[in-house]
Specification:
Blueprint (H helix, E strand, L loop, with lengths): L7 E5 L4 H12 L3 E6 L2 H13 L4 E5 L5 H15 L4 E4 L15 H29 L3 E6 L12 H21 L4 E7 L29 H15 L4 H13 L4 E3 L5 H20 L16
Parallel strand pairs: 1-2, 1-4, 2-3, 4-5, 5-6, 6-7
Helix pairs in contact: 1-7, 3-4, 4-5
């Protein structure tokens, strides 16, 4: 019997894309599913699809940037299934691509509130419920390959994904004594609608503009991105990869091994920077100090 069977998973952004793929894969493992999403219509479609596949599922329309919505989701999960064992912080937006001076404060706030604060609010709401029943569990935060390497003209998106990777590393150590395993999913390009995030942009983050990708400059960038995404990994594979990685207790979950050399080049550059620091006479007195370890 699967270690996931009979347990409950909460998935934000679960109405489509990576969230729905993970839901389907966890459902196959016998998990009961709680899906939250801002898109009520797409969420209804997802519920019908999962129910037709024989999965036990409830859905809640919610905005991950609002703590109160997370509490409603948690209450519904407990009411329906009694306990929560697994949280997938998946909901995210791509933001509006552009240069530093082209990304306005509202767009930054939108990406930060959804991609970063949404993860924080999810963990703050659901992790205590996992601790409470004492059976352990899983916390999966969805970052991106952008969390491992900077992406030009996507500063806000990159900033949030780097933060999610760092928080996951921190929480992995913090939650280990509670038998709650933490993973961070870092996919590269997957066939989803992340590049059409504007469709769900909340009114408070808008400046009265139409879809920003309608401008000539950004439209060309959007067309190129669409082609890249169309050639991306089939989303169904991602959910199966997540289950595979959870069974192996992986912290970093990668879906694109072809990016290994890119990340290696980053680490080589970091190592080279340490080497230069080691050769600096200004820092010679630090070399014999034992580094603080939190692992």
């Amino acid at each position: 019997m699967s270690e996931f069977a009979g347990k409950t998973a909460v998935i934000s952004g679960g109405a489509e894309g990576i969230g729905l793929s993970i839901a389907q894969s966890l459902g196959k493992q016998g998990m009961r599913l709680v899906l939250g999403d801002i898109d009520a219509q797409q969420l209804e479609t997802a519920q019908q699809t999962l129910s037709a596949q024989g999965f036990d599922v409830i859905t809640v329309t919610m905005d991950v940037s609002r703590p109160a919505d997370w509490q409603v989701l948690a209450d519904r999960a407990i009411e329906a299934f009694g306990k929560v064992h697994l949280l997938v912080n998946n909901a995210g937006v791509g933001g509006t691509p552009g240069a530093i001076e082209q990304t306005d404060a509202k767009d930054w706030q939108w990406v930060l509130d959804v991609n970063l604060m949404g993860v924080i609010y999810g963990a703050q709401t659901l992790v205590p419920l996992m601790k409470q029943h004492g059976e352990g569990g899983w916390l999966i935060n969805v970052a991106s390959m952008a969390g491992m390497m900077g992406v030009p003209f996507a500063g806000a998106y990159t900033a949030t994904k780097v933060a999610v990777v760092g928080m996951s590393e921190s929480w992995s150590v913090e939650l280990k004594p509670h038998n709650i395993h933490v993973s961070v999913l870092c996919p590269a390009f997957v066939k989803t609608r992340i590049n059409h995030s504007y469709r769900n942009k909340q009114d408070e983050y808008k400046n009265g503009e139409a879809d920003p990708n309608a401008s000539a400059e950004l439209s060309a960038m959007a067309d190129h991105m669409q082609q890249v995404i169309n050639n991306g990994l089939d989303v169904e594979i991602v959910g199966e990869r997540v289950v595979e990685a959870l069974q192996q207790k992986e912290l970093y979950i990668f879906t694109h091994p072809n990016y290994r050399s890119v990340v290696e080049n980053r680490f080589k550059a970091i190592d080279a920077a340490f080497e230069r620091a080691q050769q600096s006479p200004l820092l010679a007195h630090v070399l014999d100090e034992e580094p603080v370890s939190f692992s």
